[in-house]
Amino acid sequence: MAKITFFKRYKNQYADKWFGFFDSFEDYVDFFMFNDFVEDISTNGKKEYMPINILTGKRFKTDYPGYEMDTLKDIKEYKLKAMLERVRDMVEKRTIRMEDLINEYKQTNDTKGEKHENILHE
């Protein structure tokens, strides 16, 4: 698997070192449960995710979308509210999945009387 190279582009040694702990962007997303913030575009058995644009709720079309300045400055109030609700829902779903995993971890430790450190990495 290819290492994440996004931050190498910006010569940020700290971010590069941090992301170096993960084999891919997809592993990073899975580990931190950011799956609601991406769309699964996997093909031919190769796992691949594309980030979701929180303004539209749709995935970006390219790996490195062009960044626009002042995009929120001209946004209509109803679109801003929709974006905030979308992000709130995404965060809420992530929180529930994290709590479920923590409870599963606690239950596994309590019922079997032994530690299973790898449950958070499966």
Main sheet specs? 2 strands, antiparallel
In whole angstroms, the N-to-C terminal distance is 17 Å
- Give the class from helix and strand content and strand pairing: mainly alpha
Computed Rg: 18 Å
Measured by DSSP, the beta-strand proportion falls in under 5%
What general form does the structure show? globular
| Low-pLDDT regions | none
Query: SSE string, helix = H, strand = E?
Result: HHEEH
SS elements, strand count = 2
Average pLDDT confidence is 79
Level of helix content?
Answer: 40-55%
Spatial order of strands in the largest sheet = 1-2
Number of helices: 3
Structural notes for this entry:
The protein has 122 residues and is mainly α. Helix content is 41%, strand content 5%. The protein contains three helices and two strands. A two-stranded antiparallel sheet has the order 1-2. The longest helix has 36 residues, at 77-112.
Write the layout of secondary structure elements.
Elements: H1 13-19, H2 25-31, E1 38-40, E2 49-51, H3 77-112
Antiparallel strand pairs: 1-2
In short:
This protein has 122 residues and is mostly helical. 41% of the residues lie in helices and 5% in strands.
Can you tag this structure with a few keywords?
2 strands; 41% helix; mainly alpha; single chain
